[in-house]
Amino acid sequence: MEFIDTLINILNSTIRVSVPLLLACLAGLYSERAGVFDIGLEGKMLAGAFAGAAAAAVFASAWIGLLVAMLVSVGMALIHGFASITHRGNQIVSGVAINFIAAGSTIILGQAWFQQGGRTPSLPPEGRFGAITLPGADALRDVPVIGQLYSGLLSGHSLLTYVAFLAVPFTWWVLFRTRFGLRLRAVGENPAAVDTAGISVTWLRYRAVICTGILTGLAGSYMALAQNAGFVKDMTAGRGYIALAALIFAKWKPVPAMFACLLFGFLDALSIRLQGTPLPIIGKVPVQLMQALPYILTVILLAGFIGKAIPPRAGGVPYVKER
Amino acid sequence: MAENAIELIGINKSFGAVRANRDIALEIPRGTIHGIIGENGAGKSTLMSILYGFYQADSGEIRVNGKTAAIKTPNDAIAAGIGMVHQHFMLVENFSVLENVILGAEGEALLTKSIAKARSELRRLEKEYGLEVDPDALIEELPVGLQQRVEILKALYRGAEILILDEPTGVLTPAEADHLFRILEQLKEQGKTVVLITHKLREIMAITDNVSVMRQGTMVATRKTSETTVEELAELMVGRRVLLRVEKGEAQPGAVKLAVKNLTVRDSRGVTMVDDVSFDIRAGEIVGIAGVAGNGQSELMEAVSGIRKAVSGTVMLDGKPIDLTGQADPGELRDRGLAHVPEDRHHVGLVLAFDESENSILGYHDKPQYLKGPFLNLEAIQKDAQEKIEKYDIRPANPRLKTANFSGGNQQKIVLAREIEQDPGVLIVGQPTRGVDVGAIEFIHKRLIAMRDQGKAVLLISVELDEIRSLSDRILVMFAGRVVGERGPEATEGELGLLMAGVEHKEAAE
């Protein structure tokens, strides 16, 4: 029974660490499918986390925090859009700039407003998204396996976790079953085709980056308002880049994106779990190696095991009407 | 209803200092096929883009069916019943035919119903116009002829009554082009109006009812096709008399200069692109290789010029072998008298960011006449470039101008001047007149004939059958990587067309 408990424990933390990856990954999916590369997921997530935590602290409301987080992330996404869609700037440069702005301004503003060394004040329970216990979870707790899975794994997460996983089928549906999705995919492949079909390339791409802003806002909120109780400087710690790797790994498809994020999350959870625990045969593994595992795996998988990941054809290229 | 489907009145359009269209007036009667011809840069495509709402005219009026139409976006044009088939297809390659057809005309926010509707509508259009295509096929899996059909279907699905086709036959085989013309005839019978933009005079004569000629942004003439001749149209286009067929004497073949034996080449995917090909080229003759693009001509040419690896076979230049490992030293081949005008001048032939004089010596820059000790002799290079500019009439005549700022035809002349002026024994030339104006084509053809008459061996690869037929002393036809036939210059277009389509001669005779 101890094995099952351990397993559920690891899977449970897999879900917890996967959520921000998943939200950021889906965020990137909207933008990149529309042909706007976004290396600034990290920065938007960080800005969202900070704005959410600050607003939640001031108003003592998780919902206001969430709203503000999304607004700020959408604002950052629009800056990226303004630079790369309207002014046809280099999307990588713009994305890197967003990351720098977020990394610097969150600390400066945090210190100026709260004087806690860049942190936001610790949030009260009403400023956070608490765990939701699914109906019957308590009653089933002692039923072996099924009950344990239900109450230990499926139940007890925050609202944002459920939103993140529901966003996967929703994104699939939007992409492949709606007019907006059809046009979004088309504009990432051949914007000239969209333009000549009488659809505005600019407006379509702006809508895509707004979706990206909303989702990165959710990702940031999850980190600051659900996983933790406030903002700590540089709390995203490279998750935006991992999400990008997952997006490539998943070949820009929503359901594979979920599995990619879960895989990265699982490795992360495993590395935390195994820190200091001697493994059979190998013995004690250095912490650093375990922490590096997700990155090593990304390189190995991208290098040879998933086949060629073909990005949207018009990705990274600003649309200019031919003269 | 008014008699004219389209009337353009006083259309002006400038891009910066360039006046692409000036005071254009044009009337296109309903239910006719109307040709618009002109050299590259004459303003045909700009005019049609204005009509399709892609650009806005600076001034002027567009009337559709007699009523003034404000066409500001492609949407307005679509609403006015105008459809356009662009030269470069506006298709999403990894979408299905159906998805491409409904893009922008979905009707409602959810796709399920619109797709079902499009499917039945496509079936109807297929029957009505003979436009069969599998609605669920992915565009990237379709040959270009079918991709073009999808473009036509897209326009018809949107209810187009007026269909504009921009250089539609550039990518088609002769058979596919004929099929397209049949479709256009059928559209005309159903009362649709077709506007055909092209620079191929033959097509104009074959299919149009009326033809308008553009030159340097102005509309110089409109004629009934039945009352004009190819010669007159060519003269109107260029503004002077043009020789459409190069005059040349009998070839005087000499010794074998280039011998290709059992050459086999595979592409990066391992697909055999050139399959056991053998031929000789003698001094003083032009050998043309005809074929639909993608049948191995490009690979053959690259292998023979030493820039692509061959799997097996030999190529002898003046009796000595060429390194076929793909690692050949291009400088050495140039020294041995092999010059190469690549098909793709932008990627292989020129460095667009360099100025004209730099490109005009590229690859020959380590010849003593261009050097002063370890440095480039800029003065000599400029002088050399200036001479080539005069000899080849390269415009603008400024050796310091960035190459990207020259038109396609003039860029081509820069490459040709560079290779021909080094006086090579063997010249391999790919698509020498792709995207080149009628006037410049005449000049390039004359230069190639002159090379031949000086006793050089010329290997000509072109997808333009007319070019192959008028220049070559012998014609080899490639299909699926093999040379499927050799003909003399008197071979008819139909005969070559069948060979190019892979139809064996025996079958064709039956």
From TrEMBL, chain A:
Localization (cell): Cell membrane
Pfam families attached to this UniProt entry: BPD_transp_2 (PF02653)
Keywords: Cell membrane, Membrane, Sugar transport, Transmembrane, Transmembrane helix, Transport
Signal peptide region: none
Primary localization class, coarse: membrane
CDD domains: TM_PBP1_transp_TpRbsC_like
Keyword match Transferase: no
Domain of life, source organism: Bacteria
InterPro entries found in the cross-reference section: ABC_transp_permease
Entry GO terms, CC: plasma membrane
Entry's transmembrane regions: 7-30, 50-80, 92-114, 159-176, 292-311
GO terms assigned for molecular function: transmembrane transporter activity
Recorded topology in the membrane: Multi-pass membrane protein
Organism: Aminobacter aganoensis
Highest classification ranks of the organism: Bacteria, Pseudomonadati, Pseudomonadota, Alphaproteobacteria, Hyphomicrobiales
Protein name: Simple sugar transport system permease protein
Automatic annotation (TrEMBL), chain B:
GO terms under cellular component: plasma membrane
InterPro entries named among the record's database cross-references: AAA+_ATPase, ABC_carbohydrate_import_ATPase, ABC_transporter-like_ATP-bd, ABC_transporter-like_CS, P-loop_NTPase
TM regions (residue ranges): none
Secretion signal span: none
Location(s), subcellular: Cell membrane
Entry membrane topology: Peripheral membrane protein
Alphabetized UniProt keyword annotations: ATP-binding, Cell membrane, Membrane, Nucleotide-binding, Repeat, Sugar transport, Translocase, Transport
Family: Belongs to the ABC transporter superfamily.
Entry protein name: Simple sugar transport system ATP-binding protein
